[in-house]
């Protein structure tokens, strides 16, 4: 009895082992364990067990039961499984239990069996079903890899921030690989799989065939593979009973062993103690266990940080202990006490026997404005427990609208969400709520809601202007905003309609709206536009060429340029173009035509309302000094000097300036005197100036 | 590289470095080679933050412009879209991604929203079935971009239109966010002043955001003493007038975009003898304009009439410096001379450039039409004949001068008359519609909505009161050695800057009456500081005011503020921020609507 070696048994020649019960599990299972899906969390975390998982027939008599035990065997939770068939169980690094269903839906539970959330691994997985699934842990969190019935892999490197990657196809893969595992190299997750004698490495971009250095010959298939917890080592078991152990970079073989057992093992795992240099692989068959080892290497790891320790305490609801540790370690509030308090609050909201008011008050009393506490997270938890009213009360303490709004929407308190979004000034948030409301309410109610929120209404109008023109019209109609309706139809007359009749009709609607808006000017202008448009159409038919959408001014110009001056006159009269502008227009058009004869006739038709300097200017612009001179003499005294200078008659300009005794004109002429030719003129001016000064 | 940003009273390089760091961090998240697909509008502003070399250091190998259908081929691991959060851009991105999926090896897609992530856009991507294709969807809070040592801009071209025409305060929200970023880097600004509806909203948002950030106590010693938020619609007049500073005129005539200007190349042709001018460059000359260039820093804010003398003085100094070589006798002296050569050559190049620019501008400013236009503007601003149809404007319309020019003048007249008589207004409108086309009825309506063009209500013209109280028109302006901000418009003192000046001394209480006439509320808010951070000003030490123009600012206004900063007894130095650097033409253009 007292002999220490009494319960040790020999193992081989030089080793002994003993077997003793660490903890007794509180489950009454014996042989049935083999029929259960089992998953143990890393670092001595809880153990999950799904009884009767395989139930192909639809019989409801024996439902699967999900049970969770602590590592020391205490039952933590037990619940009837009511969802679909489960293919695989696993724990995330945050001690959340992931239950992977055949249809690719993953249900997530806390360690007390509380349902957290679910997500799907995508359509491809849904269609082809899950054949196999692996949960793996990286420095970023816990990932999930799925092998589908179509023998394709889909992977998410972090289930906390789900981004699905569909891995490339393995060429020529007809059946499921004989074994596979996930590897993590250079911060990227890969999949290593075996097909017959071949090994393939998949990353998200490519599938590459790989070989094992120093692999013994004769292998026709791999039966098992195992990767170590740190992803540094890899072991493979072949159909020849041979075990290859090496680095998972596939660059180095560490050792090999031939065990002469050709039966496929049930399980193969790496094992080692922290800080131990011994690395070993344990291979298990139905009734046999084998330890293959020796790969010296120094390994240290400190994965279980203080944060993780605190998380574990919180998960086990040991809040006071966690807070004491934080205070002892003097952790900053945000990382320490306030985080624990937030967790406590999340637990608190689940106490259904306490009233909403009391819970909200208790939480606010304890948390106050503690930095780093997210009231919206706590509210989300309350809502998750079906306590919407409590959630709304808690949200009132949340200062960040960006956090309030999404939850309010989720709780279908869209109108409250809208006013919170508007308060924040964040237009994107307002838009988000609006689109929600639009789907949620019927049109009438939606418009009514908008009406009471002018800021939201104007934003929604902008949205409609670019996305839903018809709705924009309805909005203006509802508000009897005839001015905007008018503008709306003006725009429509350009955008939607090709035919003149259609455009005119749209303009008529616009004009009517402008009348209703008591904007007489716009209404009349629009009617003028309709008249012009019809006329332009007729001109195109009768004269050919392009008239539609020219301005009135340009239409008249085009007619003159085309030699249709009668029609031009008529049009100018019809639309009452002011005389001054008509003179400019004709002057410009005739000069463009270089029809000097007609221009002269025009200039004499009556006294020019714009004077004659423009005639001089435009002739000079066309480099016709001869014609320009004709008009220079008719320019009024005020602009005479300018006109004479334009046609290059410096001497006469000087005479006029001297006559005017105008200093500005004198210096203007002087600045035009160039070289020897104007020397005499310059002297004349200087003399006149001197004389003027004497007086 | 951006040393000129640190020359001012507030080191804006700190901000630039902060946004550069954020960019690098994002690029490093997408490990491996990358191609960036650009929302074209962003490339200009980004150029002020990061050159291609920075992107290259982070494995950016290709750059494309965002457009429909397929992406150009690129052998890279990551494709990153740099976009503004706009729905129409999301549609293009989806098209790109969907056509990419059908080809070859898959790549990683990412989106960087500038300046903010948008749920609305993400929803659109989701509806189009591509949201899941993006590994990283992040935002890059590039709200305020440092343009110069005292100048920040959001370069948001639609800001004025959105705020005043569409009641869309998105850009105000971004402005508030930008101000929060500034405060995170430069400390809490203890006092906020403001005038205008938008100013009020931005202040409210800031106060709210501060509450949201409780817990992260700002422990930076405040650099700014005040913040002044000003609505553009408090002063609609100033941008309409033609700017008469050197920089202002360059912008009026050629348009400065993200601190670059494109100029006609002829004046910049290398002068070679016997060349016969056959190889004239055809591509526009592109120059960067900022205070990193010593000469430009000296002349940019001067009235253009005072630029010529500086240039000729500078020419003499430089040629004298080159003449020094004849005096260099000993090896030491020659070495000394040679060591200064690069600097002298740069100075000579800079002088040559600005002499050419000044010549180009002079061609315009000495033209008769420019003179006539200026005369009309000055008449309006000094209150002459603002209530009847102006014959110069009439002639401009009759000769079909550019519509923007006509609109600027009509709006200026309207603003200087507190609105036009209905008959005058209708006459102008009718002339414009008949001459330029009826489609402009939409533009005219926009201008009316913005208050730029309006009928006079109540038959009362408030402008003379405002002009006299704020001394907006100064008859005795000194363009060469100015004593008042009115030099930037040769007589007109920009209203906005006058408000800032009066706030600093003697305070707005002295102009309560005018403040009530101008649109929107005026207000003051205090942001309490912990005792350790309260400033004890040394005697004679100037206050630093951050002045934020909501809806845009002109170079002439900036020049006027710099003038105030430099006044010896001014008491206040200004750092200027805005939603957009603009001028009257770009402003009016942003309000125009072209239905076809």
From TrEMBL, chain A:
<dbReference type="InterPro" id="IPR006925">
    <property type="entry name" value="Vps16_C"/>
</dbReference>
<protein>
    <recommendedName>
        <fullName>Vacuolar protein sorting-associated protein 16 homolog</fullName>
    </recommendedName>
</protein>
<comment type="similarity">
    <text>Belongs to the VPS16 family.</text>
</comment>
<comment type="subunit">
    <text>Core component of at least two putative endosomal tethering complexes, the homotypic fusion and vacuole protein sorting (HOPS) complex and the class C core vacuole/endosome tethering (CORVET) complex. Their common core is composed of the class C Vps proteins VPS11, VPS16, VPS18 and VPS33A, which in HOPS further associates with VPS39 and VPS41 and in CORVET with VPS8 and TGFBRAP1. Interacts with RAB5C. Interacts with STX17, MON1B. Associates with adapter protein complex 3 (AP-3) and clathrin:AP-3 complexes.</text>
</comment>
<dbReference type="Pfam" id="PF04841">
    <property type="entry name" value="Vps16_N"/>
</dbReference>
<dbReference type="InterPro" id="IPR038132">
    <property type="entry name" value="Vps16_C_sf"/>
</dbReference>
<feature type="domain" description="Vps16 C-terminal">
    <location>
        <begin position="373"/>
        <end position="691"/>
    </location>
</feature>
<dbReference type="GO" id="GO:0099023">
    <property type="term" value="C:vesicle tethering complex"/>
</dbReference>
<dbReference type="InterPro" id="IPR006926">
    <property type="entry name" value="Vps16_N"/>
</dbReference>
<dbReference type="InterPro" id="IPR016534">
    <property type="entry name" value="VPS16"/>
</dbReference>
<dbReference type="GO" id="GO:0007033">
    <property type="term" value="P:vacuole organization"/>
</dbReference>
<dbReference type="GO" id="GO:0005769">
    <property type="term" value="C:early endosome"/>
</dbReference>
<feature type="domain" description="Vps16 N-terminal">
    <location>
        <begin position="4"/>
        <end position="302"/>
    </location>
</feature>
<dbReference type="GO" id="GO:0005765">
    <property type="term" value="C:lysosomal membrane"/>
</dbReference>
<dbReference type="GO" id="GO:0031902">
    <property type="term" value="C:late endosome membrane"/>
</dbReference>
<dbReference type="Pfam" id="PF04840">
    <property type="entry name" value="Vps16_C"/>
</dbReference>
<dbReference type="GO" id="GO:0006886">
    <property type="term" value="P:intracellular protein transport"/>
</dbReference>
TrEMBL record, chain B:
<dbReference type="InterPro" id="IPR043155">
    <property type="entry name" value="VPS33_dom3b"/>
</dbReference>
<dbReference type="GO" id="GO:0005776">
    <property type="term" value="C:autophagosome"/>
</dbReference>
<dbReference type="GO" id="GO:0032418">
    <property type="term" value="P:lysosome localization"/>
</dbReference>
<keyword id="KW-0813">Transport</keyword>
<keyword id="KW-0968">Cytoplasmic vesicle</keyword>
<keyword id="KW-0458">Lysosome</keyword>
<protein>
    <recommendedName>
        <fullName>Vacuolar protein sorting-associated protein 33A</fullName>
    </recommendedName>
</protein>
<dbReference type="GO" id="GO:0035751">
    <property type="term" value="P:regulation of lysosomal lumen pH"/>
</dbReference>
<dbReference type="GO" id="GO:0016192">
    <property type="term" value="P:vesicle-mediated transport"/>
</dbReference>
<dbReference type="GO" id="GO:0030136">
    <property type="term" value="C:clathrin-coated vesicle"/>
</dbReference>
<dbReference type="InterPro" id="IPR036045">
    <property type="entry name" value="Sec1-like_sf"/>
</dbReference>
<dbReference type="InterPro" id="IPR027482">
    <property type="entry name" value="Sec1-like_dom2"/>
</dbReference>
<dbReference type="GO" id="GO:0005769">
    <property type="term" value="C:early endosome"/>
</dbReference>
<dbReference type="InterPro" id="IPR043127">
    <property type="entry name" value="Sec-1-like_dom3a"/>
</dbReference>
<dbReference type="GO" id="GO:0031902">
    <property type="term" value="C:late endosome membrane"/>
</dbReference>
<keyword id="KW-0967">Endosome</keyword>
<dbReference type="GO" id="GO:0048070">
    <property type="term" value="P:regulation of developmental pigmentation"/>
</dbReference>
<dbReference type="GO" id="GO:0048471">
    <property type="term" value="C:perinuclear region of cytoplasm"/>
</dbReference>
<dbReference type="GO" id="GO:0030123">
    <property type="term" value="C:AP-3 adaptor complex"/>
</dbReference>
<keyword id="KW-0653">Protein transport</keyword>
<dbReference type="GO" id="GO:0097352">
    <property type="term" value="P:autophagosome maturation"/>
</dbReference>
<dbReference type="Pfam" id="PF00995">
    <property type="entry name" value="Sec1"/>
</dbReference>
């Amino acid at each position: 009895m007292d002999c220490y070696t009494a319960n040790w048994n020999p193992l081989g020649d030089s080793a002994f082992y003993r077997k003793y019960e660490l903890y007794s599990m509180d489950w009454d299972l014996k042989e049935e364990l083999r029929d259960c899906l089992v998953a143990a969390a890393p670092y001595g975390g809880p153990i999950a067990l799904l009884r009767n998982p395989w139930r192909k027939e639809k019989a409801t008599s024996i439902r699967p039961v999900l049970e969770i035990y602590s590592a020391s065997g205490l039952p933590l939770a037990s619940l009837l499984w009511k969802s679909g068939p489960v293919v695989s169980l696993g724990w995330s690094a945050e001690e959340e239990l992931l239950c992977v269903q055949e249809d690719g839906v993953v249900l997530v539970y806390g360690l007390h069996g509380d349902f957290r959330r679910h997500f799907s691994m995508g359509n491809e997985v849904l269609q082809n079903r899950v054949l196999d699934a692996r949960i793996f842990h990286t420095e970023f969190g816990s990932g999930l890899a799925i092998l589908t019935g179509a023998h394709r892999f889909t992977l998410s490197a972090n289930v906390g921030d789900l981004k699905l990657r569909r891995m490339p196809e393995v060429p020529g893969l007809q059946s499921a690989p004989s074994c596979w595992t996930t590897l993590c190299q250079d911060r990227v997750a890969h999949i290593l799989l075996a097909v017959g004698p071949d090994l393939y490495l998949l990353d998200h971009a490519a599938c590459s065939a790989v070989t094992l250095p120093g692999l013994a010959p004769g292998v026709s298939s791999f039966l098992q593979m195992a990767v170590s917890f740190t992803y540094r080592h890899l072991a493979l078991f072949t159909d020849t009973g041979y075990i290859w152990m090496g680095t998972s970079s596939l660059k180095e073989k560490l050792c090999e062993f031939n065990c002469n057992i050709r039966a496929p093992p049930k399980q193969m795992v790496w094992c080692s103690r922290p800080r131990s240099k011994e690395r070993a692989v344990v291979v298990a068959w139905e009734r046999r266990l084998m330890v293959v080892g020796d790969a010296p290497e120094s390994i240290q790891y400190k994965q279980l940080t203080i944060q993780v320790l605190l998380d574990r305490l919180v998960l086990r609801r040991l809040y006071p202990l966690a807070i004491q540790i934080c205070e002892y370690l003097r952790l900053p509030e945000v990382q320490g006490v306030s985080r624990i308090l937030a967790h406590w609050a999340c637990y608190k909201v689940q106490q259904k026997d306490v009233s909403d008011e009391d819970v909200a008050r208790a939480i606010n009393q304890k948390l106050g404005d503690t930095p780093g506490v997210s009231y919206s997270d706590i509210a989300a938890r309350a809502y998750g427990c079906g306590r919407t009213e409590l959630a709304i009360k808690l949200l009132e303490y949340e200062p960040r609208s960006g956090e309030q709004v999404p939850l309010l929407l989720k709780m279908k308190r869209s109108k409250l969400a809208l006013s919170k979004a508007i308060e924040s000034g964040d237009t994107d948030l307002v838009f988000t709520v609006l689109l929600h409301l639009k789907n949620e309410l019927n049109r009438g109610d939606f418009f009514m809601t908008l009406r009471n929120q002018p800021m939201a209404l104007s934003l929604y109008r902008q949205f409609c202007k670019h996305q839903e023109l018809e709705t924009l019209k309805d909005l203006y109609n509802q508000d009897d905003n005839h001015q905007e309706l008018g503008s709306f139809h003006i725009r429509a007359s350009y955008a939607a309609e090709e035919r003149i009749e259609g455009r005119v009709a749209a303009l008529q609607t616009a004009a009517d709206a402008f009348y209703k808006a008591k904007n007489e000017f716009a209404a009349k202008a629009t009617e003028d536009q309709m008249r012009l448009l019809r006329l332009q159409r007729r001109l195109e038919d009768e004269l050919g060429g392009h008239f539609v959408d020219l301005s009135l001014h340009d239409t008249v110009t085009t007619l003159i340029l085309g030699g249709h001056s009668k029609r031009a006159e008529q049009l100018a009269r019809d639309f009452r173009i002011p005389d001054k502008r008509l003179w400019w227009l004709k002057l410009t058009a005739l000069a463009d035509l270089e029809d000097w004869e007609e221009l002269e006739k025009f200039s004499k038709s009556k006294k020019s309302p714009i004077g004659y300097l423009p005639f001089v200017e435009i002739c000079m612009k066309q480099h016709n000094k001869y014609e320009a001179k004709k008009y220079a003499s008719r320019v009024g005294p005020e602009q005479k000097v300018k006109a004479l200078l334009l046609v290059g008659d410096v001497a006469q300009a000087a005479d006029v300036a001297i006559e005017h005794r105008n200093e500005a004109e004198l210096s203007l002429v002087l600045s035009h005197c160039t070289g020897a030719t104007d020397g005499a003129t310059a002297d004349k001016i200087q003399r006149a100036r001197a004389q003027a000064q004497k007086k | 590289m951006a040393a000129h940003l640190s020359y001012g009273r507030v080191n804006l390089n700190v901000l630039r470095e902060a946004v550069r760091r954020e960019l690098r961090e994002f690029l490093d998240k997408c490990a491996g080679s990358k191609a960036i697909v650009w929302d074209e509008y962003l490339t200009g502003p980004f150029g002020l933050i990061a050159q291609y070399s920075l992107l290259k250091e982070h494995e950016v190998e290709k750059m494309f412009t965002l457009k429909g259908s397929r992406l150009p081929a690129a052998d890279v691991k990551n494709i990153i879209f740099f976009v503004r959060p706009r729905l129409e851009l999301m549609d293009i991105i989806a098209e790109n991604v969907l056509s990419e999926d059908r080809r070859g090896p898959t790549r990683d897609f990412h989106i960087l929203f500038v300046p903010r992530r948008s749920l609305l856009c993400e929803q659109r991507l989701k509806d189009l079935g591509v949201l899941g294709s993006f590994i990283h969807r992040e935002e890059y809070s590039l709200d305020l971009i440092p343009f110069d040592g005292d100048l920040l801009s959001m370069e948001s071209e639609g800001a004025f239109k959105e705020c005043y025409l569409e009641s869309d305060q998105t850009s105000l929200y971004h402005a508030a966010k930008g101000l929060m970023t500034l405060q995170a880097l430069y400390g809490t600004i203890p006092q906020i002043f403001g005038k205008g509806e938008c100013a009020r909203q931005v202040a409210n948002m800031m106060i709210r955001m501060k509450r949201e950030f409780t817990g992260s106590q700002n422990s930076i010693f405040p650099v700014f003493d005040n913040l002044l938020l000003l609505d553009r619609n408090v002063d609609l007049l100033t941008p309409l007038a033609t700017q008469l500073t050197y920089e202002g005129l360059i912008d009026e005539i050629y348009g400065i975009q993200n601190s670059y200007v494109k100029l006609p190349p002829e004046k910049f042709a290398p002068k070679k003898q016997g060349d016969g001018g056959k190889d004239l460059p055809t591509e526009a000359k592109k120059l960067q304009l900022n205070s990193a260039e010593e000469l430009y820093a000296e002349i940019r804010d001067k009235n253009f009439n005072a630029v010529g003398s500086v240039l000729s003085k500078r020419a003499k100094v430089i040629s004298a410096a080159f003449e020094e070589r004849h005096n260099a006798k000993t090896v030491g002296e020659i070495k000394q001379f040679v060591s200064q050569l690069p600097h002298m050559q740069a100075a000579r190049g800079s002088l040559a450039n600005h002499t050419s620019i000044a010549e180009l501008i002079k061609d315009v400013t000495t033209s008769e039409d420019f003179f006539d236009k200026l005369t009309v503007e000055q008449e309006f601003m000094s209150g002459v004949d603002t209530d009847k149809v102006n014959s110069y404007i009439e002639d401009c319309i009759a000769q079909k001068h550019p519509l923007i020019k006509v609109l600027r003048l009509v709006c200026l007249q309207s603003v200087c008359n507190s609105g036009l008589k209905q008959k005058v207004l209708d006459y102008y409108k009718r002339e414009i519609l008949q001459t330029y086309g009826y489609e402009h009825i939409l533009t005219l309506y926009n201008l009316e909505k913005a208050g730029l063009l309006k009928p006079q209500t109540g038959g009362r013209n408030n402008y003379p009161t405002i002009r006299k109280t704020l001394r907006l028109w100064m008859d005795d302006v000194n363009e060469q050695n100015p004593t008042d901000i009115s030099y930037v418009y040769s007589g007109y003192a920009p209203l906005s800057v006058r408000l800032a000046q009066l706030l600093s001394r003697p305070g707005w209480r002295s102009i309560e009456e005018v403040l009530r006439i101008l649109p929107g509320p005026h207000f003051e808010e205090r942001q309490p500081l912990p005792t350790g951070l309260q400033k004890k000003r040394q005697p004679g030490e100037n206050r630093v005011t951050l002045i934020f123009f909501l809806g845009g600012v002109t170079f002439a206004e900036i020049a006027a503020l710099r003038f105030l900063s430099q006044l010896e007894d001014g008491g206040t130095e200004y750092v200027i921020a805005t939603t957009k650097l603009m001028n009257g033409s770009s402003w009016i253009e942003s309000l125009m609507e072209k239905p076809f």
